[in-house]
## 1
Amino acid sequence: MGRSFEELVAEAQDAPVDGWDFSWLDGRASERRPSWGYARLLGDRMAGATAALDIQTGGGEILAGLPRLAPVTVATESWPPNLRLAAARLRERGAAVVADDEEPRLPFRTGSFDLVASRHPVETWWAEIARVLRPGGAYFSQQVGPRSVFELAEFFLGPLDGSGRDPERARDAAEAAGLTVVDLRAEQLRMEFHDVGAVIYFLRKVIWIVPGFTVDRHRARLRDLHELIEAEGPFVAHSSRFLIEARA
């Protein structure tokens, strides 16, 4: 007999959600990763960079895991709990972490970096990225694509418009900012949630899937989801990702 709805809810509500580490979900949820291997490819580019910027670094997990950082490496983040985590992780790697809100303008001089990166940015400020890149420099990013995890979002919210975050729109915006797109790839990736606690943790952490999510506000649908998983097995959704690289 599995754990009760209330037990799973209480455990997931108490779990810390700072940073961008999803190890709490090990054995409870799974997501297939993009075939291109963002961290490996970023590491290759970082090895040849002299000055690099990581926008919206989260808790600094990606940068901290790279074999080598550029001699000058700077990361930005807006959320205070993530700022503390990123500063602690990246200080020993010699990288600076700058508190910055999620609106342009980037607090750096024009032509400061030969590499700008971002993984899953909330929004891409193409004109600002083009401004801070040196001639010949590159923007390298893995982004959330259209209708990502919509099966889960629509379970709570009903039918949604999934026309945003299209890779071709990203290409158009990059080119409008004066950049040349040299790589653009997209994939849909299977996700499975094995219990309602995994869903609660995921929605508390990835806050844009169900904006304003709270257990109290969505308790009835959470109970429905718990009963569905108990009866039919894991809840299946699909994440959408695209990789874009653009040069100045």
## 2
Amino acid sequence: MAHLSISSAEFQKGFGRYREAALREPVTITNHGRDSLVLMGVEEYRRLKRCERRVMGLDDFSETDIAAIAASEAPAEASAFDDERL
């Protein structure tokens, strides 16, 4: 996905244009030359929220849960995700 980067001053001057651009691609808004905000369409935001993961600690699992996880095996097709990184 393409990525547009603009200063906060430019964003203020051209809000309408960048609002429309954000529906097609993320728009990074910089402040003093540093990335500050990212403007994106609501559909992209919702997609990212669906990808959010809840992190659980070991204390969140019962002994039965831990035994079931230890005994489980990932299906062969899951190996397609071995190289994914966050």
## 3
Amino acid sequence: MNSKQRSTLKAVFSSPTSKSLEWKRIESLFAALGANAIEGNGSRVRFELNGVVGTFHRPHPDKEAKPYQVRDARAFLEQAGVTP
């Protein structure tokens, strides 16, 4: 995991929830942790990490993840046993 991915991990777990975190940084973090991406229809994407599956919709037309998406990413990482 590089320094940008470590800062993304800290941002996902920060409080209050970030409103300016780019979704591609979250996806990069998931990939660095070893998650498998499964593309779905449209903007839907699923990630599998340590036996845990998380389903997300990529934000569009904006590139920033909405606060609920960041909270969902945090919950997914917590369930998979990942903490900062």
